[in-house]
Amino acid sequence: MIKLVYCIRKRSDITPEAFYDYWLHTHGPKVRDVAKAIGATRYVQSHTILPELNQTFKDGRGLAPPYDGITEVWFESLEVMQAASGTEDGLAASRLLVDDESTFIDFSQSRVFMTEEFDVFDFRAKA
Fold first, then answer.
1. How far is it, in rounded angstroms, from Cα 96 to Cα 1?
2. pLDDT in tens, 108-123
3. What letter would DSSP give residue 75?
4. φ, ψ for residue 65 (rounded to 5)?
5. pLDDT for 7-40, tens place per residue?
6. Nearest to 113, CA basis, from 83, 82, 72
7. Quick one: which of 90, 87, 79, 72 has its CA closest to 34?
8. pTM
9. In this structure, how many other beta carbons lie within 10 angstroms of the beta carbon of residue 8?
10. Residue 2 · residue 115 · CB < 8 Å
């Protein structure tokens, strides 16, 4: 599997509360609706929390400010993702998502890239 990782910063004209609400309750369902068209098998939003602790990390390490959150989108393979993105439905879905993202994400301060996961450990209980 491969994964798209999207480190997101909100637009400055949007409050954090409005940003997180829109991202989860409006944009999330749009991604779910077009998942098959883009070839996605999983979608996760990680919303940034604990601003005081994040400030401590930033100050103690001399880091840049944290992102407002991270989106992860999984695909079975690069071939599946490319095949989906080459279809009329896939292209329309991608345009819809980018257009919607532009209403709440600051593209110039965000980052997106493809990754491959390597398990180092996983201590979660297995059912």
1. 24
2. 999 999 999 998 998 9
3. E
4. -60, 150
5. 999 999 999 999 999 999 999 999 999 999 999 9
6. 72
7. 90
8. 0.88
9. 24
10. yes
